[in-house]
Amino acid sequence: MVVIAGAAASLEPPIAASCPAGTDCERSAEVLRRLGFRGRTCLDEEQVRIANKVFANASAFA
Q1: N or C: at which end does the chain have fewer Cβ atoms within 10 angstroms?
Q2: Regarding beta strands 15-16 and 39-40, do their DSSP bridges make them parallel or antiparallel, or are they unpaired?
Q3: Residue 59 has what pLDDT?
Q4: At 17, which helix (H) or strand (E)?
Q5: Hey, is 62 helix, strand or coil?
Q6: 10: left (phi over 0), alpha (psi -120 to 50) or beta
Q7: pTM of this prediction?
């Protein structure tokens, strides 16, 4: 709903929260990208690497 509301208001897509410990961060980021998020906050260098990989080619309103 956040993505849709933002798009309706002509805002850039939102950034998602960081990946919780013990989860598959790459898969989670891919789902978020498909849902329309443009990135996510990160807790460590590995999450930064994953976020850059997944969101690097995401269009503004994917």
Answers
A1: N
A2: parallel
A3: 56
A4: none
A5: coil
A6: left
A7: 0.80
